[in-house]
Design a protein that fits this description.
single chain; alpha/beta; Rossmann fold; Glucose Oxidase, domain 1; six-stranded mixed sheet; 20 helices; 14 strands; globular
Length: 576
């Protein structure tokens, strides 16, 4: 181990011949750790979000094992540790409620232990941002490996995608096109292998984002979870993180403004999830990069969506991998001058080094930039008297004919109010109306729920209506679609203008001009504002109280105000 002469932070635990060194080494020896592991080699933390309650990450022990092999091959000392795992399909009220809590777990677990560099095992939606946010606040050498998407769903001779098919099939049940039994049959057809959602939902988007940011190796996003090439990638990650520890290649050298700008553009090109907006803003905040909605607006405007994946398009992640995956997309963006090619990656080279020769094997799945799915595919940022601090919409998943629309508001005060009334045949609504949902924001729900893509009234579905303008302070699943205005800030629970909307008000949406307007005179809005009262009191205790006291609005990434920034790896008190 002659090359290991750099003194790592783990030497503060394992490198001393005193009482502390005895304690730190002795207890580790009960696992059969040989003495040579304490010879000054880098300790590599393998931060695992395995959990049977997070089905998308349930195969992570196998991935961790392949990372471990790579670490050992390269002369590192691998130590796997668990952190809070957020399963999108099970957690209530919403996994987003716990994203910041999980990030605190990650941050303190890394800093408090003898770890020199860390591999983050990410998969289901919130497991990627929570781990990256926590690691960014410590700023050690770090690589992400994603767990990979499930194989494509197959149902009655056609392919179906995670989440997206659920919304489509449930609408067909409501409209009477298929039976409930038909619907139930699709359950096992949709999720037929290990892995996360195989649409371009939030999990696939965030796996693409970390690859675009340069904190994952090329091809990370798309290799199916059960493809043996993902295990090879995990092995490479294990080898590379040891080298990064020696090079002291920390996250802050890679997660620069250029890296985030690249990621925002890539999100437009892949038709990525709207959730990437809050997650990237929060991740950037942890490493001291000031990214905001204006950056999303500016950088995404001229980016064509060239990846034809559900929910925006037709194909699924397995097809995306076979077509060339994210390297092929990034090559096309780079050739169109939409990438900072010199941004650094965990490879030690530039982003461009990893994608310059990437082949594309299928121009239907990954289109040429002059034949895009949507010409202006980036996230549209909307502002106006209804959203002074901004709102967003995903053009590639919306209906072109609704991008400029004026309609009568039909207001649901809460998601419970929506559920109670949406199926009422007497509900006064038609397809020209604008459905408004309040109290789905960070504080109002609480936790910022994925309910913004509220389903249309069954009576309109039965008439064949498939999209309407919807406006809320909530989020929507990355697998969802529609002309859905999300993340309205400030939210209704804070007394934002959304709280003042009443049935019958006229709302104007103008996506090309970035405008969301409530057509009610200012004096009337002032009068309503004076009458407004907060709908609910604050939680009296527990994490819910911490959340309510400190969560910021959507335009700030919904992080906690006291977590913004990097606090480094120094432990306040270092010995027993
Ligand atoms: Fe885990 Fe979709 S539910 S990625």
């Amino acid at each position: 181990m002659s090359e290991n002469r750099r003194r790592f932070r783990s030497a503060e635990w394992y490198g001393k011949n005193d009482k502390d060194g005895f304690v730190h080494r002795s207890w580790m020896r009960n696992q059969g750790v040989p003495s040579r592991m304490f010879d000054g080699r880098p300790v590599i933390g393998i931060c695992n979000t395995w959990s049977e309650l997070t089905p998308c990450n349930a195969h992570f022990r196998t991935i961790a094992e392949h990372v471990r092999r790579g670490v050992l091959e390269a002369g590192g000392f691998p130590l796997e540790f668990p952190v809070t795992s957020l399963g999108e399909s099970n957690l209530r009220p919403t996994a987003m409620f716990l994203r910041n809590l999980a990030s605190m777990d990650v941050e303190e677990s890394i800093r408090g232990n003898p770890i020199d560099a860390v591999v983050l095992l990410c998969g289901c939606d919130k497991t990627t941002p929570s781990l990256v946010m926590g690691a960014a606040s410590v700023d050690l050498p770090t690589i992400v490996i994603s767990g990979g998407p499930m194989l494509n769903g197959h149902y009655r001779g056609r392919q179906i995608g995670s989440g997206t098919a659920v919304w489509q099939l449930s609408e067909q049940v409501k409209s009477g096109e298929i039976s409930v039994d038909d619907f139930m049959e699709a359950e096992s057809c949709m999720s037929r292998s290990a892995g996360h959602c195989m649409t371009m939902g939030t999990a696939s988007t965030m796996a693409s984002m970390v690859e675009a940011l340069g904190i994952a190796l090329p091809t990370n996003a798309a290799i199916p979870a059960v493809d043996s090439r993902r295990y090879v990638l995990a092995n490479e990650v294990g080898r590379r993180i040891v080298a990064m520890a020696h090079e002291d290649l920390r996250l802050s050298r890679i997660l620069t403004r250029k890296a985030f700008e690249n990621a925002i553009r890539v999100n437009g090109a892949i038709g990525g999830s709207t959730n990437a907006v809050v997650h990237l803003i929060a991740m950037a905040g942890r490493i001291g990069v000031d990214i905001g909605l204006d950056d999303w607006d500016r950088l995404g405007r001229d980016i064509p969506t060239i990846v034809d994946l559900q929910p925006s398009g037709r194909f699924l992640m397995e097809d995306f991998y076979y077509a060339g995956g994210l390297p092929a997309v990034m090559r096309r963006l780079g050739e169109a001058d939409h990438l900072h090619k010199d941004a650094l990656s965990v490879t030690g080279g530039t982003i461009w080094d990893g994608v310059a020769d990437a082949p594309c094997w299928n121009d239907e799945v990954i289109r040429a930039p002059d034949k895009p799915l949507t010409a202006n595919g980036g996230i549209a940022v909307l502002r106006g008297n209804l959203a002074p601090r901004g709102a967003i919409l995903k053009p590639s998943a919306a209906s072109p004919e609704l991008m400029v629309h004026r309609g009568r508001a039909v207001v649901f005060e809460t998601i419970e109010d929506y559920h109670a009334r949406i199926s009422d045949p007497d509900l006064d609504i038609d397809e020209t109306c604008v459905m408004v949902l309040k109290h789905a924001g960070p504080i109002g729900y609480p936790g910022f729920a994925e309910v913004g893509n509220m389903g249309l009234p069954p009576k309109l579905l039965k008439r064949g209506i498939r999209d309407m303008v919807r406006v809320s302070d909530g989020r929507m699943s990355g697998t969802a679609y529609g002309t859905v205005v999300l993340h309205v800030a400030p939210e209704a629970a804070m007394g934002g203008p959304l709280a003042l909307v009443r049935n019958g008000d006229m709302i104007e949406l103008d996506v090309p001009n970035g405008r969301l307007h409530l057509d009610v005179p200012e004096e009337e809005l002032d009068r309503r504002r004076e009458q407004w009262k907060p709908p609910v009191g604050k939680p009296t205790g527990g994490y819910a109280r911490l959340f309510a006291d400190h969560v910021m609005q959507a335009d700030k990434g919904a992080d906690f105000d006291f977590l913004v920034g990097s606090r480094g790896s120094v432990v306040p008190r270092e010995s027993h």
